[in-house]
Amino acid sequence: MKKKILVTGGTGYIGSHTAVELINSGFEVLIIDNLSNSREDVLEGVEQITGVRPAFYNFDLCDLSRLDDFFREHSDMAAIIHFAAYKAVGESVEKPLLYYRNNLVSLINLLELMGKYHVPNMVFSSSCTVYGQPEKLPVSEQSPILPAESPYGNTKQISEEIIRDTLKAVNELRAISLRYFNPVGAHDSGLIGELPLGVPNNLVPFITQTAAGLRDELSVFGDDYDTPDGTAIRDYIHVVDLAKAHVIAVERMLKNKQKSSCEVFNLGTGNGYSVLEVIKAFESSTGVKLKYKIVGRRAGDVEKVWADTTFANKELGWKAARDINNMMATAWKWQQYLMANKDRYLVLSQE
Ligand code: UFG
């Protein structure tokens, strides 16, 4: 019998890539998503890649009684990977309560029902945002957690604390929080990828939309940082590498004989790239020239951050395998797929 894994937010960007890797590793995938920032037809991409269409449940995790029904029906789940959350930093500053309610209530509901129905394992989507601007680079799991810059970032910090406290109190629950650096790129098939609704906040979707002619030009936010070329540095990680780390985290918990355990891992490549280096990598790996201009810094941005991945490499036996050129080439392949299916997708980016 295949082990059942619940993927919340499974029609989203990282969720859909993780669903593919789980199916390819022999798991049965169940998805809960309320489609607040994704579309159901992502499931077609997952099915085309794997030959399997995951069972899909469209409801909000904040609806405790609906979620209880779901758990009752699937109390044999082996693990939960909890991606579903709001993630726009700027929006969270404008609508903090929306972020606190959605991101925290959904987590609390899941943890409560994991206890009630004895579903023991959770992988939680956390973020390098919990480190703020670290004093020492690269940033390891032991680096201090700094006060969050945004309500979104704060929900990630608070969520990690909620998980830790719950695990202390409830025996037989295990959790792994994965702190992602900057996930980019798309599946090699070009059939699934990041699908921003409206104007993208993040660098790589903005680059691919500009290259595709949907945006006039890219704005580079600041060239007066204390970095070699003055633009901000991030640790970009391919979404497929990231997805594979989730499968390894699930397998680790399934093998774990300890009753209760709470672990945290950084997921990055360990390499930092500046915004200008990302643009150059995009141009050289796709042959497409990008129009861009330098503008002022974006409020709330950190100057530079990249991961110390030693702990994840050693303990998980996982290492990011794909380089920045592969990240750009696959992101571009996905953008071209979107352009070739304009009737279905173009409306999404029109804002
Ligand atoms: N950038 C631009 N132009 C753009 C978009 C981004 O120059 O149009 C720059 C940003 O200023 C930053 C870099 O590109 O220097 C990366 O920006 P992203 O928005 O892609 O990613 P962030 O590092 O800002 O955000 C990511 C996640 C957040 C998380 C944050 C934590 O998307 O969810 O890391 O640091 F909170």
Number of helices: 12
Overall pLDDT score: 96
- The stretches of 5 or more residues where confidence is low (pLDDT under 50) are none
Ligands and ions found: uridine-5'-diphosphate-4-deoxy-4-fluoro-alpha-D-galactose
| Spatial order of strands in the largest sheet | 3-2-1-4-5-6-11
> What characterizes the major β-sheet?
7 strands, parallel
Distance between the termini: 46 Å
Provide the structure class: alpha/beta
Strand content: 15-25%
Which sequence of SSEs, written as H and E, runs from N to C? EHEHEHEHHEHEEHEEEHEEHEHHH
* DSSP helix fraction: 40-55%
Taken from the alpha-carbon principal axes, the silhouette is globular
Oligomer: single chain
